[in-house]
Amino acid sequence: MAADAGAIIAGLGGAENIVEIEPCITRLRTEVRDAAKVDRAALKAAGAHGVMAAGNVVQVVVGPEADTIAGDIEDIIG
Amino acid sequence: MLAPVTGTAVGLEAVPDPVFSEGLVGPGLAVEPDRTPGRAVSPIAGEIVKLLPHAFVVVGDDGRGVLVHLGVDTVQLGGEGFEPLAARGDRVAAGRPVVAWDPAAIAAGGRSPVCAVVALDAEAEAVTALAAGAVRAGDDLFRWA
To answer: Is A5-77 CATH 1.20.120.1200?
Structure first.
């Protein structure tokens, strides 16, 4: 099941919390302003297989549709 | 599923990246590659639906996808050290070379060149290892029931 772009944005603390988002082949590598606003449970509910965070860098594992999902997210947050 | 590269077959848990070691995108096996330049081959017949310099996904006619990921954190290399030998959308036979690379150069850069082979979204029990120890590119690696 493809992850839901809008729900991932919400799980990352909203568009204003996202500094950068970059797809790798299995995951979204994102930089957020405030890591405390990231909601792991919401990201998993949005279709993420896993979430790894180190400081303000949050990796959301979404499978090989990462590039499509990153494109959807960029379309939404501009 | 054929081994993409020549080396030593190991469990996915040996891959120093939790996406693979914890099976977050599916079960599979990995190959610790020999430190000689080589060509990574497709584990199955099918269509190349994703192709990055350091990773590719082939989907078979049954709709199941296999991910081959060459090395850990190799996305950071921006393609340096990898040469695609096919294109996204190509139909390939099992064993067809897809990417040329040099595991020794990856290791020299301080990254693991271990090659993860993942049965995407499969159940863990659907995968049975067919290799242990030395394997050559194109040998059977695991069965996906």
So the answer is: no
